[in-house]
Amino acid sequence: MLVPEQTIEAIRRALLLKPAIGIGIVSLCAWSGPAHAVSCGDVLGPGGVVVLSQDLSCDTLPVLTVEGPVTFNLRGFRVVCDPAGGTGIDVIGSQARTRNGTIENCAIGMMVEGEGGHRLTRLTVRSPDVPGNGGIGFQVKSGRNRFVRNLVEKFAGEGFRLGDDGVTADQNRLVFNKVIDSENHGFRVRIGQRNLFIRNIAKRNTGEGFRSQDRDNQFFSNKAYDNADEGFRIRDEAAQNNLVISNRVKGNGLDPCNLAAGDANPGIAVVSEAAGNEVRRNKVLGNCIGIAVDAGALRNAIILNTVLGSSLVDMADGNVDCDENEWRGNEFETSIALPSPECIR
Hints:
The protein contains one helix and 32 strands. The chain is mainly beta. It is elongated.
């Protein structure tokens, strides 16, 4: 039987299309997350999905570079700096996704820079073999990044530092992260504005739980427990219009809690000419000092807080008659302000 020419042409076209369809199927499979061979010093991306297949221990630094847009899934494996020190993973470009693994024994666990817009999720950073306290778990030098459910523990330095060396880190969002048992501050904004901290935990660190040194940063529903220094510290002239609202602050600054030695750290401190900040509806219980505002820190509002059980004093203002600071609606037992504490309410 003769096959009509139009039928032959249709079959030919279908056969010619099959390689193209096959390429599409392969491409889809590549994005489904197969394990890839990843070597020390590799640049992952831009583009695609990379999945770590085993622990990676390297003396090449950074151990890996993740260049977004790309998705990098550590799949529970470790990236280790060996010998200890240097940078573990450097995130560059934009919109990189890095998740689900451990970065160990690096002086900087994650360097987050580039154009920003990255997302880092369920990463653990620790450095039990790095001496001192000068490291940084997550060094953030870009903006619009999201940090969700990460953990820094037993780390030789700060947990999260936003901005540094003239580089600003703006509009980052940190949610459900923890910094525990580490050798410096938990969460620190050095240079950065409009950063948002929600439901993070800083616990048993040798420095402060949370610190802002810039303006318009917001701290909602976080926990600062048993840190050696302040639970929250808003400091420097640039630190204006920060919000510290509905946080739980307990057991900070208790060792040694010595006023005569100049080592008495509050649960919440507004210091070094920080101005126009709002401290509202926090529960501040059992700290060395409850809430304190330094002389020269003006136009701050301390409103509707519960401040009880402090070792030295619940509430203190170093300005004469509290100057332009507003203390209103707080629950407390003891207070200090010169020449009299009636301005603290």
